[in-house]
Amino acid sequence: MFTWxxxxxxxxxxxxxxxxxxxxxxxxxxxxxxxxxDPYQDNFMIDTEDNYKVYFKVRKENNKWKKILKYxxxxxxxxxxxx
Length: 83
Description:
The protein is built from three helices and four strands; from the N terminus they run αβαβββα. It has helices spanning 3-12, 19-28, 63-82; strands at residues 16-18, 32-38, 43-48, 53-59. The protein has a four-stranded mixed β-sheet.
C-alpha cells in the first residue's frame, strides 16, 4: 500500500480505522519508515519515506455482534439438520 492509498483510506474513514485495516497497512506498505503509538492520546502515527505523516485512531471492535451472529448461524444449522 503506497502513501497515496494510505492517505485516501484515512480520509475515507475519517482517520478512524479498524485493527484489520491497520495491520493491512503495516504489512503491505513498502514506504513506511516509522510507526508510533501515543498511549496518552490513544492514537497512532505513521511516517512514510516521502515525508507524509498521518495521525489516526484504531477502532475497538465489538465482538458482541460477532457472537450473536455466530450463535444465530449455529442455531439455523441445527434447525436445518433436525428436519
